[in-house]
């Protein structure tokens, strides 16, 4: 019996709370041992009786199966692409996880997905895309949570840890327009759609004659549809998301990092799990499987950028950008930016130092303190 089967067999029924949900599975999986069959039967009964309002399914099957790992995710095409990437990497890392039905994907509708008529800042900020998923993780409805790291608040909920980042995608922003080759080619008064204050402030700083539609929200497909319908003249989207969706044919041009510094953790996927399970199930899961998936270069870069963001106490109401990378000599190069929402003032800083966790955390914090001092009171109120 493999390690993961041993972990599952030793897990008590109480370690997976009875908070009910519906699960999707791509097939069946066989188990040995009466305890696992009992767990599957009890979970099936719970599943059939109750359905959480915030939890949907990617695919229903006639019979609820017991999965070894349940992945929680939002239901947008991009979120599902990231969950599938995580699933595929887990399957490749262990033969037992490659068995049919060993991994289930559980779709969780977040508040941020439900409320699209208001700017994020008006309904609570970035945590709205992670809160319900984190709750499902803590309650035991899922075993791991897959997040876009730029959506993750700088605090991690108690009873959870985020030990794993997948290899980072391209961090740059893509310019998309039906009528212009670049931002510089747009005529004065043109409206650009973006819900990001970071993008808005940097656009207006370089091109003050342009206008920005702030409540340009929805998934990638929705925003491209609005652009095609003429709601706006152009939009900016993360190139990473377009690559993961195989939709790069929509890109008009790619903005250089010096022209549009990316969001903190843009292009990075994070995987969270519990750290307080009975029988140490989740701790062992993280140690034995998520550790195999972790891309340390990405994890350190994201930690540096998030230290910068945390120092600035950033939220969806504050235009902040930050990017850490490794240079040809193996050192960390960090660039940070804060801006007034109207783009009239942009403050920048940079750091260079060893590509090591403690040094990079210190760099991020120090850069944040410098910009806080330069900005002064009321800077973000403009």
Describe the structure.
This protein is of the alpha/beta class and 382 residues long. The chain contains twelve helices and 14 strands. The chain has helices spanning 3-10, 34-49, 77-93, 111-114, 120-123, 131-139, 197-206, 220-228, 239-244, 281-293, 296-312, 357-375; strands spanning 55-57, 69-73, 103-108, 144-148, 160-165, 173-177, 191-193, 211-213, 234-238, 253-254, 269-274, 320-326, 331-339, 346-354. Helix 3 (77-93) crosses helix 10 and helix 11 packs parallel to helix 12.
Radius of gyration: 22 Å
What is the rounded distance between the termini?
A: 62 Å
Helix and strand pattern: HHEEHEHHHEEEEHEHEHEEHHEEEH
Q: In what range is the share of β-strand residues? A: 15-25%
**Tell me, what's the shape?**
globular
Uncertain residue segments = 1-64
Summarize the structure.
It is built from twelve helices and 14 strands.
List keywords for this structure.
382 residues, alpha/beta, 5-stranded mixed β-sheet, 35% helix, HemC
List the helices and strands and how they pair.
Elements: H1 3-10, H2 34-49, E1 55-57, E2 69-73, H3 77-93, E3 103-108, H4 111-114, H5 120-123, H6 131-139, E4 144-148, E5 160-165, E6 173-177, E7 191-193, H7 197-206, E8 211-213, H8 220-228, E9 234-238, H9 239-244, E10 253-254, E11 269-274, H10 281-293, H11 296-312, E12 320-326, E13 331-339, E14 346-354, H12 357-375
Parallel strand pairs: 2-3, 2-4, 7-8, 7-9
Antiparallel strand pairs: 1-3, 4-11, 5-11, 6-9, 6-10, 12-13, 13-14
Helix pairs in contact: 3-10, 11-12
